[in-house]
Design goal:
It is a single chain. By secondary structure, the protein is of the alpha/beta class. It has three domains: about 160 residues, Adenylosuccinate Synthetase, Chain A, domain 1, CATH 3.40.440.10; about 90 residues, Adenylosuccinate Synthetase, subunit A, domain 2 (Orthogonal Bundle), CATH 1.10.300.10; about 150 residues, Adenylosuccinate Synthetase, Chain A, domain 3, CATH 3.90.170. Helices cover about 35% and strands about 20% of the residues. The chain has a ten-stranded mixed sheet with strand order 9-7-5-2-10-1-11-15-18-19, sandwiched between helices. Strand 3 and strand 4 form a beta hairpin. The longest helix has 22 residues. The relative contact order is 0.16. Bound molecules: guanosine-5'-diphosphate, 6-O-phosphoryl inosine monophosphate and magnesium ion. 6-O-phosphoryl inosine monophosphate (IMO) binds next to helix 4.
C-alpha cells in the first residue's frame, strides 16, 4: 500500500494527468502542486461537463481533499482568484481546504509582459511559451529577488522589492522591447488588495504535509507539464522553467524524497507537443491530422493546436528510468482506434543514445520504427483489460517491454470511468 504518490507526465505535457488524478482522488486525503503555475491545463469531465484546472490541484473537485500549492509553484494572484471564483460556482466554499505556501513566488504583471514581449522579439529565441510569465518569474526566484507570498504582509518590504524589480523591468521594457513602463503605485496597490483576499488561504505546507504523513494519510503530488519539459532534464531550451520531474517534489514541497513510495507515470499512447522544439516522431501528414482531430488535440490553456506523432519509446523509456516509475498509466489509446498501422520509435539511427540523452539535443535525429497492426474492435470506453482486442493488448504489452515498467492503468476515454485498472497504484 502506498501513501505518498507522485503522478507525473512523462512526455511533453497534456498526457491526461487531470483525468487520472480525478480517477484516483476518491482515495486521497491531500493533493499538492509543487511546480509550474497557470501554464498548466488539466481537463476533467465531471457528469458530462468539461472542467479545466490551471493552478489549482485537479483533486480540488473532490470535497474531502485538502489541496496545497507548495513553495515550488509560481502563483499569479489574478489567475488564482479567477480560478477560485469559477471553481466555487460548482464546488461551494473551498477556503478551508486550499492552502498556499507562504514561500511561493508571485507572478507579477511585469513578468507576464516580459514573457510576451520576449516571445515576439526577433532578438530572443521563440520558445512558444504559454505567455503566463512562468519563466520570467522563475528567473527572479533563482536571482533571489522575487516577491514571495509572505512579503505581501510587510508593506515596507513589499514596496522596496517592487521598486527594485520595476527599476530593472522598466529599463528593459523601454530600452530593449518597445514596451510600456509599469507604474509602481498601481502594482503596489494591486498587491496590497490581493494580499487581503489571499489571507485566508495562506499556510504552512511543510508542517501540514508532515501532519498528513504522520497520520498515514494518502497524499498525491500532482505534476504539471511533463518530464521532457523539465528545465534540467528536458529538451533544453525548449522546456518550461521548473523541475517537472520527480526531483521537483522534494524542493517544491519540502519533503524527504525517499518518502515517496509510488511513482505513477502518465503517457499518451502516442505523442503530442505544444510550442516550439524538437519532436522526432512528429507526423506531418494525414495520420497526424487524424490523431489531432480524434484526440481533440488543442491546448487546454492557450487553445493552440498540439503537434502529433507516434509514441517515442526511446524518450519514454528514458523518462521512466529518470522518474523511478513503478507503474505507467497509458492514456488515449482509443484515439488510435481505426488505424491500420501503428508505429513505435525504438531507436535513433546511427547515434550514441547516451550522448543524446545527456543533452537532449535531438533536433537532428532520425527515428527508426517498428510497425504494429491496428486493431478491429475499438478500445473506446472499455473498462476491463480482457475485453480489449488482442492487437491492442499486443501494442500495450510491447510498450511495457520497451519502457521497462508495468502498465497498471489504461485510459480509454476522457471520463473518469473510462479506465482499465490492472493494478491499483494506491
Ligand atoms: P493534462 O494536462 O495532462 O491534464 O492533459 P490535458 O487535459 O491538457 O489534455 C488531455 C485531453 O485528453 C483532455 O481533453 C482530456 O479530456 C482528454 N483525455 C484524457 N484521457 C483520455 C482518453 O483516454 N481518451 C480520450 N479520447 N481523451 C482523453
Ligand atoms: P500541462 O500541465 C503542454 C510548454 C509551452 C512551451 C513551453 C514553455 O497541461 O501538461 P512556459 O509557458 O511554461 O514557459 O512554456 O512549455 N508547456 C506545456 N505544454 N502542457 C503543459 O502543461 C505545458 N506547460 C507549458 O507550450 O512549449
Ligand atoms: Mg494540459
Amino acid at each position: 500500500m502506498s501513501n505518498l504518490i507522485s503522478l507525473l507526465g512523462l512526455q511533453w505535457g497534456d498526457e491526461g494527468k487531470g483525468k487520472v488524478v480525478d480517477h484516483l482522488a476518491k482515495d486521497l486525503k491531500a493533493a499538492v502542486r509543487y511546480q509550474g503555475g497557470h501554464n498548466a491545463g488539466h481537463t476533467l469531465i465531471i457528469d458530462g461537463d468539461k472542467v479545466v484546472f490551471h493552478l489549482l490541484p485537479s483533486a480540488i473537485c473532490h470535497q474531502e481533499i485538502k489541496c496545497y500549492l507548495g513553495r515550488g509553484v509560481v502563483v499569479s494572484l489574478d489567475a488564482l482568484f479567477e480560478e477560485i471564483e469559477d471553481a466555487q460556482k460548482y464546488l461551494g466554499e473551498i477556503e478551508e481546504r486550499l492552502i498556499v505556501s507562504r514561500a511561493c513566488s508571485l507572478i507579477q504583471s511585469f513578468h507576464i509582459k516580459l514573457d510576451q514581449l520576449r516571445e515576439k522579439s526577433p532578438a530572443s529565441t521563440t520558445i512558444g511559451t504559454t505567455g503566463r510569465g512562468i519563466g520570467t518569474t522563475y528567473e527572479d526566484r533563482v536571482g533571489r529577488k522575487s516577491i514571495r507570498v509572505q512579503d505581501l504582509y510587510n508593506e515596507t518590504l513589499l514596496k522596496s522589492k517592487l521598486e527594485e524589480n520595476l527599476d530593472y523591468y522598466n529599463f528593459i521594457f523601454t530600452n530593449y522591447l518597445e514596451g510600456e513602463k509599469e507604474d509602481i503605485n498601481q502594482v503596489l496597490d494591486r498587491n496590497l488588495d490581493q494580499a487581503e483576499m489571499l489571507k485566508p488561504y495562506v499556510g504552512n505546507v511543510i508542517s501540514d504535509i508532515h501532519d498528513h504523513t504522520s497520520k498515514q494519510e494518502k497524499i498525491l503530488f500532482e505534476g504539471a507539464q511533463g518530464a521532457l519539459l523539465d528545465v534540467s532534464l528536458g529538451t533544453y531550451p525548449f522546456v518550461t522553467s521548473s523541475n517537472s520531474s520527480i526531483g521537483g517534489i522534494a524542493s517544491g514541497v519540502g519533503i524527504d524524497p525517499r518518502m515517496i513510495d509510488y511513482s505513477l507515470g502518465i503517457a499518451k499512447a502516442y505523442t503530442t507537443r505544444v510550442g516550439e522544439g524538437p519532436f522526432p516522431t512528429e507526423l506531418d501528414d494525414s495520420v497526424g491530422e487524424h490523431i489531432a482531430k480524434v484526440g481533440g488535440e488543442v491546448g487546454a490553456t492557450t487553445g493552440r493546436p498540439r503537434r502529433c506523432g507516434w509514441l517515442d519509446a526511446v524518450l519514454l523509456s528514458h523518462t521512466v528510468k529518470l522518474n523511478g516509475i513503478d507503474g505507467l498509466c497509458l492514456t488515449k489509446i482509443d484515439v488510435l482506434d481505426g488505424l491500420d498501422e501503428i508505429k513505435i520509435c525504438t531507436d535513433y539511427e546511427g547515434n550514441s543514445l547516451n550522448d543524446l540523452l545527456e543533452t537532449m539535443s535531438i533536433e537532428e535525429v532520425k527515428p527508426s520504427y517498428i510497425s504494429m497492426p491496428g486493431w478491429e474492435k475499438p478500445c473506446a470506453g472499455i473498462r476491463d483489460y480482457e475485453q480489449l482486442d488482442g492487437k491492442a493488448k499486443s501494442y500495450i504489452e510491447k510498450i511495457e517491454s520497451l519502457c521497462g515498467a508495468p502498465i497498471v492503468m489504461i485510459s480509454t476515454g476522457p471520463r473518469r470511468e473510462d479506465t482499465i485498472v490492472r493494478q491499483y497504484p494506491l
